[in-house]
Model the fold of this input.
Amino acid sequence: MPDNDVARRGPAVRGEDRTRPAAWTRFVAVAALVLAALNLRPVVTSLGPVLEEARAALGMSATIAGLLTSVPSVCFAFVGSAAPRLARRHGPDGVVLAGMAAVTAGLALRPFVANTPVFLALSGFALAGIAVANVLLPVVVKQRFPDRVGTMTGLYSMALNLGASVAAAVTVPIAGAFGGDWRAGLGAWAVLAAVALPPWLVLARDGRRSIERPAGGDAAAGAGTHVRISRSPTAWALAIFFGLQAGSAYVIIGWLPQIYRDAGLSAETAGLLFAVTSVLGVPLSFALAAVAGRMRNQSGIAVLLGAFGLTGYAGLWTAPATAPWLWAVLLGVANCSFPLALTMIAMRGRDGGTVIRLSAFAQSAGYLLSVPGHILVGALYQHTGGWRGPLALMVCLMLPQIAAGYFAGRDRQI
Done:
C-alpha cells in the first residue's frame, strides 16, 4: 500500500499555491490540531476515576452509569454522520470550532448539576462536539497539510492518547487539591478545552482559503462510486470488528478504574492503571499501523490483539488485585484494535470513494452495535453486585471480535 504522504503528494502539489497556507497559519493549524486532539477523550476518561463519587452525589444507578458509557458511541454514530454535511455548509474549521465550544461548555457546566439526567445531557453535548471533530480532523489535515498527511495524523493521534492518559491519571489528584471535590476534578478539563478555541477561531476565519474538497480527488471519487457497501460480507466483518473493539474500549474507559477500586485498590492507583492502557496506545499505534500497512492480510494481528484482550479480561475475572499492572498492559495492547480497524478500512476499499463510504458504514454501524454491551455491563454490575458477570460477558464478546477481525483482515477489496 503506498505511503499516504507520497500517494497524495501529486494532486496536492498541483494545487499547492491555492491550498498551502502561509507559515504562520500552518503553525496555528498545528497548535489547533494538537489542542483539539488533547480534548477528544478527557470528557470520558476523567469520569472513570471519580465515577463512584459522582454516582453517590447524583444518585446514579449502575445501569445508568452503564448507559453513560454508551453515550459516546451513540454520539459518534449519529452526530458524526452529520459532520460532512455541516462541513460543506460551514467549512470544516468552523464546525470543529463549534465542536470545541460544545466540549468546553459541557465540561464546564456538568460538574455543577445536581441530578443525573442533566449530567447525562451535558455529557452528551460535549460528546457531540467531539463527534464532529473526530470526523473532520482528518479533513483539516488533508486541506492544511496536503504534503504532510501521515506526519500530522500521527501527531494528533499521539495527542489524543496523551489527553486520555493524563485525564485518567490526574483527575483524582486535582480533586484532592480542592479538598477531594470530584466536581473540581471534572471541571478542570474545561480549561484545557477553552485553550483550544482561539487557534480554531483563527483557522475558521482563514477557512475560505481552503479548498472545498479533500486533495487527491476523493470527493469526485465518492460521487462516482456506486458500491452497495451494506451487501459486502467484508464490510459487515469490519463493522462488527469495529463495534466490538469500540465496545470493549469504552467499557475499559468507563469501568476499569471502578473494577480496580472494587478490588481494594486506591482511587489514585486505579487511575494510574487505567492511564497505562492509554499510554501504551501512543507507541503501539504507530508500530501497529506501520506493520499492518505493509501486509496484505491483517487477520493474524487482529487475532493476536483479541487474544491479549481475552487474557486481560480473564485475569480481571480471576484475580484483579493479584497482577493489576499485567491486566492493564494486556488490555492496553488489545485497545490497539482501533488503529488496526482504521488501517483495514483503508486497505479494504478499492478506491478513495469506496474507502469514504466504507469508513462511514463501518464506524456508524459499529458504534451502534457497541451500545447494548455498554448498558448490559452496567446492568449486570448492578444486579449481581460484582464484576464476575460483566467480565464473563466481556470474555465472551472477545470471541466474535476475534472471528470478525479474522474475516475483516483477509486480503479482500470492495
About this structure: The chain has two domains: 1-216, 218-414. Residues 1-21, 210-225 have pLDDT under 50 and may be disordered.
